[in-house]
Structure formats: structure tokens, C-alpha cells
Amino acid sequence: MDPKTLLQNFVNGLSLGSLYALIAIGYTMVYGILRLINFAHGDIFMMAVYFAFFFVTLAQLPWYLAAVLAISCAALLGFTVDRIAYKPIRNAPRISALITAIGVSFFLESLAVVIFSGIPRSFRTIFPQSLNEMIIIGGQVEMKYGREVIVGGIRFPVISLITLIVAAIALVFLWWFIFKTKVGMAMRAVSLDIQTTSLMGVNVDKVIGMTFALGSALAGIGGILWAIRYPQVWPYMGFIPGMKAFVAAVFGGIGSVPGAVLGGLILGITEVMMVGIMPGAAGYRDAFAFIILIVILSVKPSGLMGKPEIVKV
């Protein structure tokens, strides 16, 4: 692989990894507070794309307005899921919450089938159609944008650069929200000691609801960027991105937001580089993520930036 292709693949890997990171943050934020793996998170991502499909294709709204509305709807959906499904079982055993999360996932997928049918739907892209070329990669539709940024003879797709910029802005906002606002401070306090925080007068249920909403909004941003890159939506599209984001969260250290970002970026770069070096292995790119999960759980279960849990007896 020549240096130019290597750099192109690196940027594309960063772009893909930033999408995984945005989704992975939702997993790690909820786990950091509730010690719950919200397996319905990937379906929040899927519903965000359906919201965008509705606003762009059916309501004929411009992309920027459709994106804001879709992200807001995703945040509201995450908040609602917490209130209806998870709040009643706050003090139940972990296995009950896990089963509930799986049930919510099936419910959202079935709801999408009932409302939109199980047929994949396509919708218009953010760029004029004259600039785009639709191609098939591994059975999945992807938009190859005719407009590229050329730096030093190296071509960078516009969509990859847009994804990186938007993801960076979202992560900076997340850092500001967590460390510079009272709600963010409450989230950090609840993640450290939920019982002591409640005794200090903090409305823990409200903080948890805000955590679900924020994580779902980030998944919504990831969904919008994914929809621009792959302008198709179907009810089960959230499974693979959701599972890869979960792998990224575990790889970086579940419960650690910086770890989720690092894990997502590493996973995205590694995945794209693997396909670039071994084009014949493109069909196994999804399985590669789960191989990483098995290895990290065997070698360092707490992840790259996670801390081992100490159980007091």
C-alpha cells in the first residue's frame, strides 16, 4: 500500500471510527451510572435514521432542519425509553434490566417494521445528485461523492471530512456539557456514588433521564452522518453499528467516555486498514470487530482506559 493510499485509508478510518465513537459514548455513559448495557441503543440509532427519512423524504424538509429534528426526536425517545422501561426496575437485579434492554430492542425493531415495513428505503442525500454516484460495497449501498478535497495529490472524500468535523464538534460539546455545567457535574457525581448523590439532594432519576437523552442524541448525530454516507434505512440496520460501538466501548473501557472515543477510533481505523491491505477480507470486516472483543475480554477485561471493579465482601 503506497503512502497516499495509506493516508486516505487512515482518514476514512478516522471518519468511520468517529461514528462508532458517537454511538459508543451512549453505551458507556449509561453503564457508568446504572451499570446497565443498554442493548436497545443501536435501535435508537436506527430510529434516528428513520426520523431523518420521514423529515427529508415524506415531509420534504431541508437536510439541516431534518437533522436537528431527528436528533431531538432521538433524544426524546431515549428519555422516554428510560422512563417507561428502565425506571420501574431501577432496583431490580441486573439480569432483569438486561432482559428489558433486549425486549426494548425487539420492540423498536418491530415498531419500525409496522410503521415503515421491512423493505429498505432510500432517500435523497445532502448533496446535489449530480455530484454523487451510487455504488454497491459488500451488498450495502454507499454514496461515492464526485466532489473531493485534494491535498498534495491525495483525495479526501467530502463526506469523510464532514463526518470528522461534525463528530469533533459533538465531542467538544459533550466535554463542555459534562465538565462545565451543573447537569454534567451531577452526572459525574451519580456515576461515582449514586446513593450518596441522592442523599445530597440531587434528583437522580432526572439525571439518569438526561444521560439517556444525551447518549441518544449522540447516537442520533451518528445516525444522521451514517444516513448521509449510506442513504438507506431498514428496521435492523442498527444491529451491526450498535454491536461495533459496544465493542468500541468495551475495548476502550466501558464506563470511560475517553475510552469509548479511543476505542471507536481504533476500531474504525483498523477495520478500514484491514480491508485496504486485504481486499478479499472485506466480507469479514464485521466479524473482525467481534474478534477484537474476544481478545480484549481475554487479555484486559477492563479495556484500555477502564478501571477494574473492586467488589467489597
UniProtKB/TrEMBL annotation:
Lineage of source species: Bacteria, Thermotogati, Thermotogota, Thermotogae, Kosmotogales
InterPro entries reported in the protein's UniProt record: ABC_transp_permease, BCAA_transport_permease
Primary location: membrane
Compartments in which it is found: Cell membrane
Listed GO CC annotations: plasma membrane
Membrane topology: Multi-pass membrane protein
N-terminal signal peptide: none
Membrane listed as a keyword: yes
Keywords tagged on the record: Amino-acid transport, Cell inner membrane, Cell membrane, Membrane, Transmembrane, Transmembrane helix, Transport
Family in the record: Belongs to the binding-protein-dependent transport system permease family. LivHM subfamily.
Superkingdom classification of source: Bacteria
TM regions (residue ranges): 20-37, 44-61, 67-86, 98-119, 154-178, 207-228, 248-270, 282-299
GO biological process: D-alanine transmembrane transport; L-alanine transport; L-isoleucine import across plasma membrane
GO MF annotation, one: L-phenylalanine transmembrane transporter activity
Organism: Mesotoga prima
Annotated protein name in UniProt: Branched-chain amino acid ABC-type transport system, permease component
